[in-house]
Amino acid sequence: MAADAVLHPERLIARARALDGKLANGLRLAYLTLDPADPPRFAWLDVEFFTDHQLSPLPPREIFEVQGGVRRGRAAVAVTQVLPDPGGSLTALRLKLEPVGDYSIYTLSTRQWPPGTAADPLAAVMDPLFNRLAFKFRPGCFNVNCAPEASPAPAEDTAPAIDYLARDYDSFRHVLMAAMAQRVRGWAPTSEADLDQVLIDLIAARGDELADAHDRVLAERALGTARKRVSLARHARLVDYHVHQGNQATTLLALEVAAPTELPPNPADDCFAVWSGKDWNAPGAVVFATLRGPGRWRRLVFPGLNRLTLYTWDDTVSALERGATSADLCIDGDTSEAQARLLQDLLRNATAAQTGAPEDVDAAVERLLIEERLNPETGTANGRRTQQRQPLTLLPGEERATAMEDPVRGRWFCRVRWRAEDALRERYCFVLDCDDTLVRDATVFCANLMDVAHGRPRVTTFVPEGQALEGDGGDTGLVARHGAHWSALRRPLGAGWVDAGAEAWLPRDPSIEPLAWHDTPPGGEEPPRSTLVVEVSGYAQPWSEHIDLIESDGSGEHFVVECDEAQDARIRFGDGVNGAPLPPGAKLVCRYQSGQGEAGNVGCDTLVSASVPVQRVWNPFDVRNGREPEPRESIVRRAPEAFRLRQRRAVTLDDYAAAARRIEGVAQARARHAWCGSWRAVQVVVDPVGGGEPGADLVARLAAALDALRLIGDDVEIRAPAYVPLDIRLALCAHPGYWVEDLRFALEAEFSDGHTPDGRAGFFHPDAWSFGQPLHASRLIGRALAVPGVERVLRVSMRRFNPGVGGGLVTVELAPDELPEQLDEVLPIGPFEILVVANDPDRLERGRIALDIRGGRR
């Protein structure tokens, strides 16, 4: 027990009373008697104990220890003899102490003896709280107290007081003035022009700057307080969130040329560009370009693909209906066999110019553009519908284009087919009858298409520090050329410095737009990719851009691009451990585009000038995908929670279905477990967009996506839905003023699986029905009554086309006087079934609807 411990008196008394029951003992009090001789040679100390445990036989004198004394050493006083109590008390002992001590306080206690051996019985039963007893040899010799043992006061601190809360100019100035007044006798602030006052102001200002820099650096430690965009991006990547840097706008470009032309014609050129207005450097001009880089970055266009017109079979085919996936085309109205076969070969990518194109030239024709040239209502260019233009992706292989002959006229054309996903969204008119005058080619096709991206092309040549700049041609040409230096980086390691890679800052001033970034979806799942193409001297291929160099080894030809809050871009290279280092004296040639994201969002037919002479160039569609960089508030809000919205594994059946629904081309999906005899399989039933069976490409994409998410031990099987054909009969009463056949045509279009003449989806359109969606009789009645000319629905009968597979006949008889307020009749559909009614006489197994129309005009 510590000597300075504070003991609770009442609990101490209770503890002393309990000693006897615990076979313990303790020192209670002592009386001291000095030897009568002068000076006294010894003293008798009569010690009383709380109990008599282990007091008989007499304990050895060595277990008693006396400590204390000022003038004598601490070991000078000792117990020399142990005797029984003279009064015969069994709870007391008489101890002889020699020599007599001084006037200070002494302490009696028990101990083990010899040290390190088994304890004496008395020492073993002594309570630690009652094992110390204080006494004096001469308690009454003086009428004054002994000098107390007091520690001296600390020395006065002469250093000035420091206010650690001082963090700005005013508080620093106040601290400095207070220190001057304390340390310089008689000093007082006078004029602001005095030297001492000026120095105080300068030091306070510098302290304010340093404190601000310290606070800003400290704020970068966490996502919620960081202000630097680089810090925000690095913090976000720790939780697998990629900050969106904005992206350049991209669009499809259509061209007409007089001869086969490579864009750009010279392989040494850095870009092919188009822009709005006449001059690229005019105020407000918007530049789009294709940038030189690896792969097929140049484009080969042909005059035979400038304008493709529809072969109308002597004006018999005046329009292409919505949903069409093929058209009979010829080159600008030329119906000769040579032109038809030329078009076939061009669309099949089989001409000599296409098969023998240079490695950097893309000569393949994969898309068509359909657009209205004239207003279908007036036959003039005014009011033509530019919003109805549509890109069409050709089918693969030779089925995309076939040269054919009109057996009656002997004219040739080429039948062109495109994907079902690109079926015409509108009805396009080709032959117009305006004021008894036939106007042909109101709608045309174009196949000279290429992709361009917003941003002015720039080329920056970097050389090591200390060398003369190269390639600094200024900002006067369409392709801006700059020269700059790259610098080596070093970082401290122990007592020295080691290489830390290299960096290069892209030139930037108010007249130079920031670095443009490729189009990536926002949301943090995909890392951003800049438009930079970096060529390093001594390397055959350009280096590749990575989001970081953590997974790059010492030979990885990689670099990282980081943008700060001012949109200044820094290229960072490896140090030989993470990423390959730049060779000494290396020269870097960086090609990229610069431009603001939303500045490239322009309307259709805006890009009308090109860097290469062409007959015509235009952008058929509005440009809308340019985005600005993700703001800080969005990063701070979304990054910590983004991982909750991404599921990188499929555990439950709903997980599998949700993962399938995220694949493009899937309208709905459901999943179920199945046992294949040896292990469990997950059957993912997919409803494709547009209905029908899922294509091979969609199945392959689904299998690849789900295989990365499935549980170990689960097989994934992609299946088509179980389509349930229905047999429906409607009995209707027609209005007396409507012809029955006209009304039948309108009802069949209304209940079709396609579109109505006015563009609305039919009642049984595949995208209107999905898994387990039942058919309510009330919906059929409501859709029928919405058709002009239907006066009343008399009877509704609906059942499965194959009654044996489930579900019975549901019939609704309606009274002729009034409709009921509510109809509960419903034809149920299973959870993995989708109803279908094609109403095609050639495919009755796809469902039918029979109409019994009564009344009306006949």
TrEMBL record:
Protein name per its UniProtKB record: Putative baseplate assembly protein
Annotated organism of origin: Azohydromonas caseinilytica
Biased composition (Polar residues): 377-391
Region (Disordered): 375-401
